Amino acid sequence: MMMRNILPLIFLLLLVSSCSGEENKSVYSITVDDLIKENDYILAENPNNVTALQFRSLIFFNNGMYPEAINASEQCLRVDPSSGLAWHIIGSSWGSLNQPEKAAEAFKNVVALNPDDPVQYNIQGVALSRTGKYQEAIQVFNKAISLDPRYAAAWNNLGVTYYGMSDVNRAIESFARAISIKPDEPEYYSNKGFALLNKQDHGGALHVSRIARNMDMTCVPSWFVSGEALFSQRNWKEAFYSFDGGFNALSNSDLWYYQGSKATQITKDLNPMDAYYSAIASNVRFTGLWDRTTVIQYKIKRYQNTLDLYDQIIAITPDYGDGWKKKGYCAIKINRIESARDAYKRAMEDYPNDPEVLSSYGYAAGMLGDYLQAMNYINKAIELEPSNPRSYLFQGLVHSYYGQREDSIASFNKGLSYDPHNPEIFGALADDLFKNGDTLGGIINSIRAIIAF
């Protein structure tokens, strides 16, 4: 039904664009200020022009000017209190300003305007879920499902909400329902993967993450699900490549659910508004014609549809800082030292005072030739947590790398005083004792490394 309504409008859009001729070449030089000035011109002729006010809201929203978008939407609502688009923009703007409570209240008004529309209940549920009002969100999602039992997005979002409540079994059941209804949505599989990880079902998590990636290699969460599963299985190499794949996909993705589940965006894909730009570029003045310009109405509808789409699906967002940590850990395990240094450097942005991150970064820096930086970070880690054996392991390894074996042996022994069964430290100590000519000590610690005692 929607396509039958939109296709004629697309034709009109193409017709208007083709009629503008050579003048349309200037479309891409139009700035936000140009758009606002043109909008001011229209509103000066008719301050109550709802279409112009809706466009003003979208101009501000799509350029990240959220307070201005809210003000324009509120002005629109004073003229037309039934404008669902205005309430949508207000809710999404408050979400982008990290005000989820106000976002939820705005989406509640959308539902009031559309009491029989399951999509609007779903969007309200998304806002409630993001505020942590899980019980209310569950009620709203169930309302959406009662209106449309095959509404896959609502089932998925219900699962994410149960996941947030640590009700993992119900989360898995909800994700399974979403998948059964719409089996070609990769985010449903990655969400189920996170729930399976929570149940320590690493094999199951790997299975669904691979299905998701086979559908869409840019599905960021699926890479992290497989990375976490492989990390738990101590498959360092494959885990490293999974985290690496996730971060590579993340760097190439602008979809809102990869930026964090609390962020709400309409879209970046349709920015800027081409119909509006074309009209300005061809010097069309809409005085007296604005409300009869079907392509403008089409463009608003197109944005409305896109907003609904982007607000429908919640994807469980990975902990990216923890992902960098685990990628660095795996990189050390497979001797990818430069990758380890880079990963831990990124992890420090989220964990600036984490002793494991600091000492691991220091170790990587030392192995790459920067002894002073290595000791600076490792010593800071020890200062923050004097009883962390891994910091002493890395301190000893760096000392050993630079030929300071007496210092390295002292560091290893210090680490063993805090963790007397650490096989990595026993192995490193054994290597240095052999190098120092202490064959018996080397043999004893080699055995202890094997039996971890």
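^ that was protein a. below is b, sequence first then the tokens
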Amino acid sequence: MNKMKPFSTAALALTLAACDMAPKYVRPALPVPAGSPQGPAYPAGQGQAIVPADTAWKDFFVDPRLARVIETSLADNRDLRVALANVEQARAQYRVRRADIFPTVNASGSATYQDTPFSQVGTGRMDIYSASVGVSAWEIDLFGRVRNLSRAAQEQYFASVENRNAAQTALVAEVANAWLAMAADQERLRIARDLEKAFGQTLDLTKARFAKGIASELEVRQAQTSHDRARSDIAEATTLVAQDQNALNLLAGMTVAAEDLPAAMPDGDVTLSNLPADLPSTALLRRPDIMAAEHQLLAANANIGAARAAFFPNISLTAAFGTLSLGLSNLFKSGSDTWSVVPSASLPIFDFGRNRGNLRYARATYDAMVATYEKSVQAGFREVADALARRGTMTEQMEAQTSLRDAARVSYRLSEARFRAGVDPFLTTLDAQRTLYNAEQSLLATRLARAANMVELYRAMGGGLK
């Protein structure tokens, strides 16, 4: 055993002092402006804003019903489970690759029984027993091939972790948007029912006036169109509510409790509203999808090092220490020790372009990963810019839609009163009905867009992971 120490010590020292053929990694410059876009569509900063990436989703979503649905989804959503399984797969592959850095020590034992007629000893029977511990063909990684392959596997594992995190942030936003869509459809159903009732009363009045000869059949048919449209929208909204619930159940991975489902569009905000109005581009580097793209880039960089190392000699070591005897009882006695050390080296001379092709492939993969990384940054920048532009005009749009709805309500009430008094024809009332109906729908769509914009801005800025 003492005779093998110099060999093992030297091999370990060579491994630790090995070269690294991978290029020095430098993060690509961000292919986007340093700050968020400026202009009339973008909001001005007001007050203290939260940092979305540091704000837990439980703190951001203030409606307890929505928070419970999100919590259920994070526990039972099947897509998230698949992402977690992918992480475990990548972790296992990294462990397998990392094990190649170290020698694999094997123990073996054998027994040979033979009988030869030409034996020079007293009998032709010979029993040989052996036991050994050794290392077989351990690659001494002088040029970093194995270490770079291990580093690439490690970066792939890190990328899978970030992909899982990206799946979580997307799931949180998707669940919130599905919940809000159901709330809006419930509100749409309520509006349709209220207007169907009001339009039904107008239709009954018009029919009564027609029976007395005061109104024409044309006015009856015109009143019928508004009433039938409301009835049709009730059927459509009922279907949408059922489909929204089915979508929520799929995202949650189970049937969502009835008490956690929205009955109408909430009057107040379901999220925190103090999101930042401006964000430096460097903050995008905290987004999980961009972090995953950078880990893929690091893996490609390590693969270049492994491809370069293939041009240099491959040095391996096979060594064994054991005991050998002619009798089982003498196997571990003094004088039966045996050892062997077999270093070897191989250098590619003619491989007909195999190593050069592998290196070109690794470099091309790296270039592709650079483009993928830059595209991820650009996509993230656009998502944030689009969400900020939507937010910048949302307040003005909400005020205008609310004023429009209020004016349409007053107009409908006045026109109906004048129609009942015989001052105006029914055409004026019909026009007011349609205007009110469209105004109610538009205001609801704006309220939904405002709530969804807050969710999207939170996600685009890296929120939803904590």
